[in-house]
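Notes, Module 5: Reading structure tokens.

Key idea: the token line is not a picture. It is a compressed description, and you learn to read it the same way you learned to read a sequence, by spotting repeated patterns. We will look at two proteins. The first is printed below with its tokens.
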Amino acid sequence: MRGYLFLFLFICSVGASFGQVYKITYHAIHNDQVILTDPVIVFANKYKTVITRESIMNNKFKQTAEQSIIDIPSKLIYRKSTFQNRKSIYSVDSSAFNRTNFSDTKDFKTILGKKAQKSTTSINSNSIEIYYTTELPIHAAPNDVGLNKGWVMEYRRNGNSGYVATKIEEIKDFPSDYLLPSKAEVLDILTYRDEVWKSKFIQIPIFKNEKICFDPDNLKSDSILRFAAGTVILKKIKVPALLNESQAFIELVEKSNGDAYDRTGSVFFIADDQPMTFLDGMKNGMNTLPRYDVGDGKDYLGMIRTGGYSPIFELMRFFTPFGVSHFNDRLALKGKTWQDSVTYRQDISEFLGVMAGKEIYVGTYIGNYDKGGHIVSLEMTIHPGNSNYAEQTNALSLFNTTNVMEMGGQTYPTLFGSAQGLDFEFELKEDVKNARLRYITTGHGGWWNGDEFVPKVNSIYLNNELKFQFTPWRVDCGSYRLYNPVSGNFDSGLSSSDLSRSNWCPGTITYPNYISLGNLKAGTYKIKVHIPQGPPERDSQSFWNVSGALLFEN
């Protein structure tokens, strides 16, 4: 009888040990300094481990919170992500538990009174060191790395950052909300990752597979407005009021739907800070907008800021490649696979100050004369934190000579061929700080001797004082050959898309220049852009598409 009693007590003792739940607190370390904020909290026994954070347990997280629940016997790691609306989703990783191979060393240290052995590995070119122990029958770590070794008490990446266990407690049981999910709750890993990624920022869809083409007989408008014989599309969107330091991006995906040529494109939004807007000209005729006259017999409509009118804000200047997607089967080359589309993505955070909390009209223009034209999708994304721009950054649209309403009455901007060029006044109604001109410029036309293929100096003046001078030129166009399936080919072995150009290449974005103007007092200012535009050549003429927005802080 005494033997049975001893066996019963032994089994109960072992069971209690194996079932004991431990709560482990890890603090981040950086350059051997312990960081006390928001520690990692791990719950573990022989059968299960939970990796979470103090902020998640206290329901104080502001962004998507990811936790891990590990089923130790099956070596399955369940990912649990909880969004700001407190919805949770799950996925499972069957390989992470044993994914990393470690090499034990002969180094030991004592952590929380326990002897821990050093083990090393490399992950994504990062040197990883852990100190682990097997003195307790648990598999625990501040992340997934080293779970198969036992209890990871310290984790370091590249020697200078990581986590260290600072406290261990024995508790009665796991918190109630860390149960393993049912099979019905578990998403496949790609769906899970996609939902987690998208939960971290705001998506504002604008266009989805919309056609931009020259088709004046089929100008149907619904939520998408179409102008200039179909070469301009426009939509009103609502930009939410935002947290401080947000970042904004636009992403455009383009493919040919029949047009084989490289075309000028622009993504823009309509400034509405004055009584007359660009939309008035789109609806009522461009001749209703202010004219800029340089004495060459042409009217340059809606291109400069006046006392009652603001030109459009240009978000992105882009150039379509030669026939990407639609013409991919026209020319097969050994060792080359044509791209299916081109994606343009650009940071536009500097404009959040004039967009946030408003309804705005966003448009896309591609100059072309083809009924098939181009297919585009456009979205804006807004991401919290880490902005490079001051919270109070504001903007005024000063000029935009890109003739986005080319088929609706805006002439090509050949105005730089005159002695006057671009030269006008604008008014600041109050003092501003840290003023910068966001300047985009590209040269076009004129065949071989025209400004598309001849470098030309751009000079920008404020009140007749030279503020910036440079020669816009791109020499990397050959990098985008695989986006240009029907680019013209020459006997020299070059393709037209390879050729260097005045600040653009087929299939690329033209980046803005940011020109410092300093602190400016309220008053009237004169701005001048000078470019030595070349003369017409045969049936072609040179011209320059330039846009300028004044960025500043109040």
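Here is the second protein, with the sequence above and the tokens below, as before.
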Amino acid sequence: MAIDRKNGFCDSTSTFHSKREPMSLPPNQQLDVTSFIASQPHRGKTAFVDAVTGRRLGFSELWLGVERVASCLYALGVRKGNVVIIISPNSILFPIVSLSVMSLGAVITTANPISTPGEISNQIGDSRPVLAFTTRQLVSKLTNSNLPVVLMDENRVASSGGGERAKIVGSLEEMMETEASESRVKQRVNQDDVAALLYSSGTTGKSKGVMLTHRNLIALVQAYRARFGLEQRTVCTIPMCHIFSFGGFATSLIALGWTIVVLPKFEMDQLLSAVEIHRPSHLSLVPPILVAMVNGAEEINSKYDLSSLQTVVVGGAPLSREVTEKFVERYSNVRVLQGYGLTETAAIVASMFTKEETERYGSSGLLAPNVEGKIVDPDTGRVLGVDRTGELWLRSPTVMKGYFKNEATAETIDSEGWLKTGDLCYIDCEGFVFVVDRLKELIKCNGYQVAPAELEALLLAHPEIADAAVIPIPEMKAGQYPMAYIVRTAGSNLSESEIMSFVAKQVSPYKRIRKVTFLASIPKNPSGKILRRELIKLTTSKL
């Protein structure tokens, strides 16, 4: 099999191979990701720092906490295959919960703390968790679930505030102080068992549970090792419920001995203060934060000392050449490493490693270690070669097991293990991946995925809306916002503000409609599918 060393392309199989050094994966099939992470050698001392309270967790305290919490979960009846949900802002305790659950062979599912009670209820209805971890402030979102709840706040259960109607069974702090039981029987966990269930809109429609196995997450750790190395310092501001943050801050970087300074949520001043105080060399950001740093560069550089910063890793949405160039110009000591990934690939597909690679503007980098790619013509199914645009298909040890209880798996992963990304891409003559457009209809707002079909279903439930279509509208800070085209029922005078308010009451802030245009009819093809590209052209012609 002859592989072109310059771009990784094999002519006989029409497959692109990673140019990176292959990563080694443990041959022992009976291994959980928590044990794998705990076994990795490093000389790091402090694992986590709470940027608000200053509380620190050393690695020894972290692993003692994981063992004790796992023992308490076992005592509560959590067993292999059970699902446990965590609904929490970023916290130095979030990884303890996740690692404890996965060490039992149970499955951790993460919910966004800004989700509405209805959205959380849908996720609970789909994933069927046996236990929930959440905070006093968020427990009211679980009052109709009848789930037993463990509170994650530092204070004890006695002062649980708004949780009287919830079925509170303990506190995480008490679990971390409870001696581990020696009577616990460790169940056999295989690398192919599901470790995490992270919800994504996938390539189409409604949010689906992405089943990531212990093997997927172990491969993710090894990919981080290849890219970053040991014992650095960083700040976590991206929500840990998101694969970009869960895969890095709650799992992989722990194995590498990194010190992670945790912010509960993104606030620019808090982020910049944390950089000045804690002196990280590395930040992981989504494009809207990078854009804000570009726009406010003069004030930021005069007010904060960011001289420790060497690397910014950007993911979650495409980043334009213009923004990248402006950032490097205004923060001259920092290199911007772009990457591209999906929840379905544990956030790993392509990435940049070196300063030289950052100069390939518009690219997402080279295929990650052990990743194979194909470029497939979406109309004919023909496999294409170098510098040809088509749908990117992927095969790698980080590709998900499938969607949880969802027939969309068969449409997304073929019989040979190729994942159809739904993204139009090309790979150039030197093996760099370029994301051109989306075949799938997702809108990326502030790094979050918004499914047009979900918002359209909501809009069509309004008695004065006869038809609706939702498309992305470009926005400098957020990347994209949802916009709605509406056909009103006969005689209706429904206004733009009434429609936006109707949606806003039922969805998370990033899903809110930001603009409404009224039409006589929604353009559709003969089978009734919305012709979104026509609407996008109509919108961009008016901007």
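Summary for the second protein:
- The mean pLDDT is 91.
- The first strand starts at residue 9 and ends at 10.
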